[in-house]
Design a protein that fits this description.
The chain is of the alpha/beta class. It folds into two domains: 163 residues, Response regulator (Rossmann fold, 3-Layer(aba) Sandwich); 138 residues, 3-Layer(aba) Sandwich (Rossmann fold), CATH 3.40.50.2300. The protein is built from ten helices and 13 strands. The strands form two sheets. It has a seven-stranded mixed β-sheet with strand order 1-3-2-4-5-6-12, sandwiched between helices. It has a six-stranded mixed β-sheet with strand order 8-7-9-10-11-13, with helices on both faces. Strand 4, helix 3 and strand 5 form a beta-alpha-beta unit. Helix 1 crosses helix 9, helix 4 packs parallel to helix 5 and helix 6 packs across helix 7. The structure holds alpha-L-arabinofuranose. Alpha-L-arabinofuranose binds next to helix 1 and strand 10.
Length: 324
C-alpha cells in the first residue's frame, strides 16, 4: 500500500470556496486549524485513477487542506487498514473511493461512532444504512453503460443479423463494473440482434484488457463489437486485435468509458469508435464538500458529475485541451 509521504499544505483554513471546476484557494483564517482529510484511493490501475489522484492532491493544496492520501493497490483490506488508521488519527473528515461495493458497514460504523464524517467518492458503497456516509460524489455509471448501449442500438439500426458483442468488464464487484454492465444490458435490450456472447473481468487495466481480448479472439471465431468498461482495457484490446491481424475500429467496433487523452487519441485515429466520458477531476468538488461538512453546512446526499460522450469528430475537437 502506497502512502503519500507528504502531508499537503498545512495552511490554516476553515472554509472552502472551491466550486465545481475551479481550484480556488481557501481563505486563510488566523488561528484556525486546517482541516485534516484522510483519503483512501483505490490504486493506480488506470489513467483515470492517476488523474483522479492528482486532481485531489492539487485541490487539497489549493484549499489548504492537510491531505493524508493512502493508495490501496486495488485491495479492500488495504483500504480497511487505511480507514482504521484515519479513525485512530482522529482526522476531521474521511473520504474514500471503494475498490468494491460491499463489505463496508462495520468500518463505516466505526467512523460514525468516532464522530468522523465519511464522504464516498467516485464509486458507491452497497449499504442499507445511508447514515454511514454524508454524501456521495461521483459519476452515474449506469447512465454511462446506457449511453454505450444506446450508441450501439443506433449504429446497428439498419443491420440485419446477429451482432456478437464481447464485454471486458471492470474489477469484479466494483460499482462501475456492476452499473456499466447493467446500464448497457438495459439499453441493448431494445434490439434482440445485439447479443453479449462473452464477458470477463479485465480489472480496469491495459494488460487485463489485452489478455481478456486475446482469449476472446481465440474462443470466438466472429466478434463484431467490444464494450470495454474503461479506456485502458479498450487500449489493451486494440493491441490484442492488431496482434491477431484484425483492424480495431473497422473489423471490430470498440466502445470504451473514461475519455482519457489516450482513449480520445485512439478514437480520433479511428481505432476506437465511441467513448463515454467519466470525469476524474473530482478534487475541487471534493474539497468544497469537505469544507462544508467540517463547518456544519448542509450538503446534498448525492453529487453527480456532468459528463458527455464522444465520436471521432468530437474527440478531435477536444483533444488539444484535454486535461487527462
Ligand atoms: O471508478 C472509476 C473507474 O475506475 C474508471 O472508469 C476506471 O478507469 C477506473 O479505474
Amino acid at each position: 500500500m502506497r502512502r503519500t509521504p507528504i502531508i499537503l499544505a498545512a495552511v490554516a483554513a476553515g472554509l472552502l470556496t472551491a466550486c465545481g471546476g475551479g481550484e480556488s484557494a481557501a481563505p486563510e483564517k488566523a488561528g484556525q486549524a486546517s482541516i485534516r482529510l484522510g483519503f483512501s484511493q483505490v490504486g493506480e490501475e488506470s489513467a483515470w485513477r492517476l488523474a483522479n489522484t492528482t486532481s485531489i492532491e492539487h485541490a487539497a493544496t489549493n484549499a489548504g487542506v492537510q491531505l493524508d492520501l493512502r493508495v490501496a493497490d486495488g485491495k479492500q483490506e488495504n483500504q480497511t487498514a487505511a480507514i482504521r488508521q484515519f479513525i485512530n488519527d482522529k482526522v476531521d473528515v474521511i473520504a474514500f473511493s471503494p475498490v468494491v461495493e460491499s463489505g463496508w458497514d462495520e468500518l463505516l460504523q466505526e467512523a460514525k461512532d468516532a464522530g468522523i464524517p465519511v464522504i464516498v467518492t467516485d464509486r458507491m458503497v452497497d449499504t442499507t444504512d445511508t447514515s454511514l456516509f454524508v454524501t456521495m460524489l461521483g459519476s452515474d455509471f449506469t447512465a454511462e453503460g446506457r449511453k454505450a448501449g444506446e450508441w450501439l442500438v443506433e449504429h446497428y439500426r439498419d443491420y440485419n443479423g446477429t451482432v456478437r458483442i464481447v464485454e471486458i468488464e471492470g474489477t469484479t464487484g466494483s460499482a462501475p463494473a456492476n452499473q456499466r454492465r447493467s446500464g448497457f444490458a438495459e439499453a441493448i435490450e431494445a434490439d434482440p440482434d445485439l447479443q453479449v456472447i462473452a464477458s470477463r473481468d479485465g480489472n480496469f487495466t491495459r494488460e487485463g484488457g489485452e489478455q481478456v481480448m486475446a482469449g476472446f479472439l481465440k474462443e470466438h471465431p466472429k466478434i463484431d463489437v467490444v464494450f470495454a468498461h474503461n479506456d485502458d482495457e479498450g487500449l489493451g484490446a486494440i493491441e490484442a486485435i492488431e496482434a491477431d491481424g484484425k483492424r480495431p475500429g473497422v473489423d471490430l467496433k470498440i466502445i470504451t468509458v473514461d475519455a482519457s487523452r489516450d482513449g480520445l487519441t485512439a478514437l480520433a485515429e479511428g481505432r476506437l469508435n465511441y467513448v463515454i466520458e467519466c470525469n476524474p477531476l473530482l478534487g475541487p468538488q471534493l474539497m468544497e464538500l469537505v469544507g462544508k461538512v467540517r463547518t456544519g453546512q448542509s450538503i446534498p446526499r448525492r453529487v453527480v458529475v456532468d459528463e458527455t460522450a464522444f465520436d471521432r469528430e468530437a474527440a478531435k475537437a477536444v483533444l488539444p485541451n484535454r486535461q487527462y
